[in-house]
Write a structure and sequence with these properties.
Bound molecules: NADP nicotinamide-adenine-dinucleotide phosphate
Number of strands: 10
CATH topology: TIM Barrel
Strand content: 5-15%
Number of helices: 10
Mean pLDDT: 97
Shape: globular
CATH class: Alpha Beta
Helix content: 25-40%
Low-confidence stretches: none
Number of domains: 1
Largest sheet: 8 strands, parallel
Amino acid sequence: MSITPETLEIPTTTLRDGTPFPLIGLGTSSLKGVECATAVSDALRLGYRLVDTASQYGNEAAVGEGLRVSGVDRAEVVLTTKVAGGDQGREASREGVLTSLRRLGVEYVDVVLIHWPNPSRGLATDTWRTLLDLRDEGLVRHVGVSNFRPEQIDSLVKETGETPEINQIQLSPALPRQTSVAYHRDHGIVTEAWGPLGGREDLPQQFAIRRVAAKHGVDPARIALRWAIDQDIVVIPKSNDPARRRTNADLAQITLDDEDRALLASLDLGESAAWDSREHEEW
Ligand SMILES: NC(=O)c1ccc[n+]([C@@H]2O[C@H](COP(=O)([O-])OP(=O)(O)OC[C@H]3O[C@@H](n4cnc5c(N)ncnc54)[C@H](OP(=O)(O)O)[C@@H]3O)[C@@H](O)[C@H]2O)c1
């Protein structure tokens, strides 16, 4: 695929094994059908190289279609999907991932995450073992978790000796999740932020972020995203709007200073405002 002058250069972080990993990707949770396929192909043509989906989103076929329509080489794209709660367990999760591969229309998937720990079922460790097997078999390149608290990751590591490469958690300036982020850093786990624009927490309406945004002449969304990638945290903003997809991934000209960071730190709602995966489950 030829690179046009409009193609964005997306910065990267690295996974534990040294694999480069885009710091900005496209979220797809409420996108469906043709709309989803178009958003994915447009984003890839624009320069996005990371796309986040999940079995639970009901859009894997559309994400795969967007990848094919884009004309971008499969090998250049990092596709992430997730094992749904109802697919947890040793055999069921294998079936779930194989079904995801079929729907996506790909021979391997780059990243598979356990979507939520769902402690009431007690199947997270069995599911994790299956993901490790699938990685050994080459069907999955990298494995991780989502919405796991540090002690929930500790339990996987204690049982299997294998640490997730990524943990995708709810995170924005309204929910900086400092305990999780520090734990991830100490264990070589890449932190990936869902809900990075903080819409559920009314972040874009808050005075502090609006003030930082006005100072830099950009929208609050780009401030929230820049703040995260400055900490080496991967962001996956979802947008159905072509102009927003571009600005969300075009952060190179924004430089936050200490005054900005202090203002953004004032937005922390505390850990208790985040969805708690000891209680919140998704199936
Ligand atoms: N692991 C999990 O449990 C989990 C949970 C939730 C989400 N996720 C993943 O994370 C991705 C992102 O999270 P999310 O979709 O919940 O929230 P988000 O990306 O923080 O916010 C998406 C919302 O913000 C709007 N938006 C996007 N860019 C904007 C901009 N520049 N200015 C103003 N508004 C903007 C979008 O509307 P428009 O489309 O109209 O632009 C949409 O309503 C999801 O799509 C999904 O892939 C994972």
